[in-house]
Amino acid sequence: MELDTTAQPDTSNPTAVIDSPCPAGGSHQWRLTEDGYTRWWHTTITGTTIHALFGGTSDFSETGTGEHLECLRCGTTTPVPDGFDLDYC
Question: Contact, 37 vs 68, CB < 8 A?
Answer without folding.
Answer: no
